[in-house]
Design goal:
Tumour Suppressor Smad4; about 1100 residues; alpha+beta; 6 domains; about 20% strand; 6-stranded mixed beta sheet; about 40% helix; elongated
């Protein structure tokens, strides 16, 4: 046996030398623990029976934790496997000791079975080198006395668990008294003080090292590693496997339904690969797949039927299908695919929901507390929806009651299961399975300048995005990037082609997917006046089932904020660039948090890094990279990314004038595709590869050329013939017969209770915004007292009436014109209050409205919530205004009656302002158009041009137009109230008969009198000094004229008749018209918003 091992070892040693690697031979083993079989025994409660071992090899010593309960620590860092030397402090749980030569003297020689283990480890090393020569480059270079390696793989000297750091990223060598750093062909590059390391660069103490975007200083903490390992060289243990655990369960990955993890992608083989948990990682074995299996980069495939060790930081590529290894840990922790819940055999009715009292509890935020139930009827099962908020779907169709078979795919919100009645179990489907595909997407718009009258914005775009893929959409301005995103996410129906999610047309099944789609537009979808928590809370109230408690929502918000790294901003006001609150990068994360409330599997982001500093941009992109690795499909538009940012994306899609000119791997493939002359490894090639703009430059040049259309068409045709199109478009396309386009998802009509619940949440949010926006609210409230004082000063200049009752009556007749003008100014002010309060209300939050409309926002709820809160504001303004003007000017009309008329006038003004806000596209346009809406209200209100004068010819049309003015009806209403309170004073007559005649005259004035008689009354004037001396004669004259008026068969209305004549109405009719205007304008706002919806779902 020993002779056989020697022959094999010799052969392997020769083979390893051919690969430029040192032979790894196990000489001794020092086992550590509390069990008596160990060579080094420590009787401490935190030390496991078989805690760890130190392998003494030909290349050095390696410490290996054997799955201990409390773990192992070296130099303050917890380790599973690490190089050690004499003098190192090792902690086994809480027990610490310093490794000495005396300890090593107890080590047992590696004989017998241990010798065979050496052969196996050497074989693994040889296999790894033959698979990936990059890892062998970590060996020390010639002349180096000490070497340390950096990367995320645990066998590095310094392991850095960051997604931008490659498995074996860089090597630092000490050559004499100087240091050098070498990039080991890392994905994201190595940098020293911001300069990229092409091959090897000199390194000084305190230089800043960058592994991709991960930065740190070359300081004492790194120098300590050289001091500790002064007498040894690096030994890399690749693929060493603890075969004692070989009996663990093996997971299979593939397209076939009986795999443990089913990946329904055409380039994934039926049975593609196997995975087995090992030493905190995974052993991968390709089982003869057609398109190969790759690790981290799609350059060299894994050798079929060989095993490769993977850590959670690695990324698998099954063909071109990306699968982060970190998701395997999540899979085994929740046992998603293998989880099968048995149906109770003793029940014919099984309830399903989020509540703990259900037979099947589904812990997902989109699932209602009592969501659905299964009913057994003989040998069949019937599924019934219990009025859930987000619906129950069977094979993509929303149902209320449906028979279930094992082939049906059932979705409760975003939670998907299969029911197998024959076995009496419910299988939970693997989540994060969103696959997005665009099929020949074409978008045309009207264009008067085009001969055909149409302009093509997108021309037959086809591509497929898989789960966990992070995809950038790039191109020159006007290329159609945002248009493509809108067509894909269900907002803008394409003129031709389809947007498909898991082979279902998104526009036909939007209700099913609306909670699975997150969209962050370029504009903020958050209210700057709210705190971060308040913004997320109201969003959760709108989107989550109504039975979700506030405590559940707060826990969800805390979890999301913590995952995004902004938990400390929870109670901070969001603010704006002018009114400082949270930072720009934090604002982007809060926008993203709004979408994560419903835990979507598909995320669209339009320019998420625009306006951010480079550090914030990098931070946001790293966050999106992590979210994609958790199972989401992410698409974003982006301009001029840096190299670090560019490399974070898996794939990139380039558009030019609406045509697809590239879709494939981002780095370096996209740059090399547009620059075929560049060769990696050459100075010119590396210079091109270091600049992502090198991919965009040829497209930009074609786009600006005089023959741009022909050039871009050629690029499109070239791409259709490329290997990238074959792998990423044609190779990913399923059989078209699988695409379900024929059946439209039936929408369930929402109850009015749903509308009112939304109204209450939206009203509370609007009230909170107004309450916190102190500056604008104060300005609006101050308008009323300022206008009131001004009116009181202007219209209170008339002399107070004195003298006899006859004199007072004469004075009142002369002041009626001034009072009428004051009443009209009250009307104008009320219309102004309503219009100015609401003109910016909808357009100012248009991005928020559109996003909430895409989810579940009901237009009546939205409009009525705005109207209700703004009506309260208008009521306060009208009360203040009338409270100042009424006593100071001395109106006779009832205060409450006048307030009712003014309030209805102001709310009608709200309707006018909301209509304007729904029509325009910017707040600036809304503010500019408000005066244009008020001018007709002033001119046609009845004071400047009395309606009774608009008779004959074109004036009839003007009079009819005046009837459409809110001010015209409100003005007449105030005149009614004021005139009714102004009877003729009976004190001016002396006899009983005269008093009775005066009383009848007062009633006649209220009912109306002819204009001719009114002119006779108007001829009354104040007596002169001589006439005053003959007061008896004057009173007799007045009584005579009064008698003449009373004898007339026609009556006059004084104030009302002066301005409206025969076109006047009763007070009740005026109020009815004002109510009509309010209702009609609210319906008009709803209609405009509905018509402006770009999609119909």
């Amino acid at each position: 046996m020993a002779t056989f091992i020697c022959h094999v070892s010799g052969a392997l040693f020769f083979a390893l030398r051919q690969h430029g690697a040192a032979r790894v031979v196990l000489l001794k083993v020092l086992r550590i623990g509390t069990h008596e079989s160990n060579e080094l025994i420590f009787n401490d409660a935190s030390v496991s029976p078989h805690h760890a071992q130190i392998n003494i090899r030909s290349t050095g010593m390696q410490f290996v934790d054997l799955g201990s309960e409390h773990g192992s620590t070296i130099a303050g860092a917890r380790v599973d496997r690490a190089n050690v030397s004499i003098g190192d402090e090792i902690a086994l749980g809480r027990f610490r000791f310093v490794l000495t030569e005396e300890h090593l003297g107890r080590a047992r020689s590696s004989e017998g079975s241990e010798a065979m283990r050496t052969v196996q480890e050497t074989l693994s090393d040889l296999s790894a080198i033959s698979r990936d020569e990059l890892r062998a480059e970590a060996a020390p270079q010639e002349g180096a006395t000490q070497v340390i390696t950096l990367g995320y793989h645990e066998t590095n000297t310094i392991s850095i668990a960051a997604p931008q750091v490659s498995g074996y990223h860089a090597r630092i060598s000490k050559v004499g008294e100087s240091f050098e750093i070498t990039d080991l062909r890392s994905t994201n590059g190595t940098f020293v003080n911001g300069e990229r390391v092409v091959e090897t660069n000199a390194l000084q103490v305190n230089d800043v090292i960058g592994l991709g975007s991960y930065q740190f200083k070359f300081d004492e903490s790194l120098l300590r590693h050289f001091n500790r390992t002064a007498a040894k060289t690096l030994a890399i243990d690749i693929g060493a496997v603890d075969w004692s655990k070989a009996g663990e369960h093996e997971l299979t990955l593939g397209r076939a339904d009986d795999n443990d993890i089913v990946i329904p992608a055409p380039q994934v083989s039926g049975y593609h690969a196997t995975l087995r948990a090992k030493d905190g990682g995974w052993l991968l074995r390709d089982i003869g797949s057609l398109n190969g299996t790759y690790i981290n980069v799609r350059s060299t495939p894994v050798v079929p039927h060989s095993e490769v060790f993977l850590s959670d930081q690695d990324v698998l590529f099954l063909g071109s299908y990306r699968f982060p290894v970190a998701r395997l840990s999540e899979y085994t922790r929740t046992k998603r695919q293998s989880e099968a819940v048995a149906l109770p055999e003793d029940k014919d009715v099984i309830t399903i929901g989020r509540g703990e009292g259900n037979d099947l509890v589904v812990d997902a935020p989109q699932v209602s507390r009592d969501h659905a139930r299964l009913r057994r009827e003989g040998d069949i099962w019937i599924l019934e929806d219990l009025g859930s908020a987000n619906g129950t779907y069977v094979d993509g169709v929303r149902i209320t009651r449906c028979e279930i078979t094992p082939e049906n795919l059932i979705a409760f919100g975003t939670y998907v299961v299969r029911l197998d009645p024959t076995k009496g179990v419910v299988h939970k489907e693997y989540q994060g399975e969103i696959m997005l595909r665009g099929e020949d997407i074409t978008v045309d718009v009207k264009d008067a300048k085009s001969p055909s009258g149409r302009k093509r914005l997108l021309d037959g775009i086809s591509f497929t995005a898989y789960p966990t893929e992070f995809i950038g959409i790039m191109g020159p301005s006007g290329a159609g990037k945002t248009t493509l995103m809108m067509a894909l996410n269900g907002y803008l129906p394409p003129s031709g082609g389809s947007s498909l999610i898991n082979n279902l047309d998104i526009y036909r099944h939007y209700d099913q997917f609306r909670d699975n789609i997150g969209y962050v537009p370029q504009d903020d979808i958050i209210h700057r006046e709210l705190t971060v928590f308040e913004s997320l809370y109201y969003t959760a109230k709108l989107r989550l089932p109504p039975d979700t408690s506030s405590a559940e929502i707060e826990r969800l918000i805390d979890r999301i904020l913590e995952s995004l790294g902004i938990l400390e901003t929870k109670h901070v006001r969001i603010g704006s660039p002018i009114q400082k609150g949270i930072s720009g990068g934090q604002r982007k994360r809060v926008n993203l948090a709004q979408e994560l409330i419903t835990q979507p599997s598909l995320l669209f982001l339009d320019e998420p890094t625009s306006g951010l500093a480079s550090s914030d941009t990098r931070s946001v992109m790293q966050l999106l990279r992590r979210l994609a690795d958790e199972g989401r499909t992410i698409l974003l538009t982006i301009h001029q990314p840096s190299l670090d940012v560019y490399r974070e994306m898996d794939n990139v899609l380039y558009l030019a004038r609406g045509k697809l000119v590239y879709y494939g791997s981002t780095y370096p493939d996209s740059i090399l595709y547009f620059n075929p002359q560049a060769k990696a490894g050459t100075p010119d090639g590396d210079k091109i590869l270091s600049n992502p703009d090198a991919a965009m430059a040829p497209i930009a040049e074609d786009n600006s050329a005089s023959d741009a259309t022909e050039r871009i068409a050629r690029r499109h045709d070239e791409y259709l013939e490329s290997t990238q199109h074959r792998d990423y478009v044609a190779g990913r396309r399923d059989n078209a017969a699988q695409v379900q386009l024929t059946q439209r998802s039936r929408r369930t009509r929402k109850s009015w209770m749903f509308v009112w619940r939304q109204w209450w949440v939206l009203a509370r949010r609007t009230m909170t915004i107004k309450r916190k926006d102190l500056t604008n609210s104060a300005i609006l409230l101050l308008q009323a007292p300022i206008i009131g004082v001004l009116l009181a000063i202007v219209f209170n200049l008339k002399m107070p009436p004195t003298g006899s009752p006859v004199d007072q009556f004469m004075m009142n007749q002369g002041s009626e014109g001034a009072d009428a003008a004051a009443l009209f100014m009250l009307v104008a002010s009320a219309v102004w209050f309503g219009t100015s309060n609401s003109a910016r209300e909808i357009v100012g939050e248009l991005a928020i409205y559109r996003r909430e409309r895409m989810v579940n926002l009901k237009i009546p709820s939205y409009v009525l919530s705005k109207f209700f809160i703004l009506s309260l504001l208008s009521l306060v303004q009208c009360t203040i205004l009338l409270g100042i003007v009424h006593p100071l000017i001395g109106f006779h009309g009832s205060f409450s009656s006048m307030l009712v008329v003014l309030f209805l006038c102001s709310t009608a003004g709200l309707g006018v302002g909301l209509t304007l806000s729904a029509l325009v596209r910017s707040t600036e346009a809304a503010v500019a158009l408000v005066p244009l809406l008020l001018i007709p209200q002033l001119v046609l209100g009845g004071l400047i041009v009395p309606l009774k004068s608009l008779e004959g010819g074109a004036r009839v049309a003007v009079r009819q137009s005046a009837n459409l003015m809110v001010s015209r009806w409100a003005y007449e209403g105030l005149l009614h109230v004021e005139q009714d309170a102004r009877p003729l004073p009976p004190e001016i007559v002396t006899t009983v008969e005269e008093r009775e005649a005066a009383r009848r005259f007062a009633e006649a004035m209220r009912d109306g009198m002819p204009a001719e008689k009114r002119r006779k009354m108007g001829s009354l004037r104040l007596p002169t000094q001589e006439e005053t001396e003959r007061r008896g004669e004057m009173e007799a004259l007045f009584k005579t004229r009064l008698a003449e008026t009373l004898n007339s068969n026609q009556r006059d209305q004084t104030l009302i008749a002066r301005y409206f004549g025969e076109y006047s109405s009763s007070l009740l009719s005026v109020i009815a018209m004002l109510l009509f205007f309010n209702v009609a304008l609210l319906l008009l706002v709803c209609l405009i918003l509905r018509m402006k919806d770009s999609r119909f779902v």
